[in-house]
Amino acid sequence: MLYALLYRSVATHPVGELSLRALTVRAAQRNKELGVTGVLLHGVHEHLPEIPGAFLQWIEGPEEAVRKLFESISDDPRHQNVETIAEGPLAKLAGTNQRLFPDWDMEAGTIGELPATLAGFLTYVRRQKRGGGWALAA
To answer: What residues does the BLUF domain cover (predicted)?
Structure first.
């Protein structure tokens, strides 16, 4: 059974494109070993526009691997106020047994305002895929 988790957190320091890319490369290597795929979005927290930025991440894969990865993320000093938005079987959360990001060990992007809910995130993903913004994600 595939498992998924969507969380948001507040960045402890400003995150530039270069550091976001470096983080993504390291995460992709680790995630490949764990059998985890997903996407990391960086942007403005809708309720706290003055903070250095916020993260919204979707991770999917074997339940044990997703939980282990999230525990590591929760302990990462680059994150504070880590909040789980949704977690559970992929079919229950996304309405499909297929990974949303099957070819992405991890990809990242910066957007203006991060979605605050699972429904908002899924709507954003569908729009990106429909518009060709995420052509690599099947």
So the answer is: 2-107
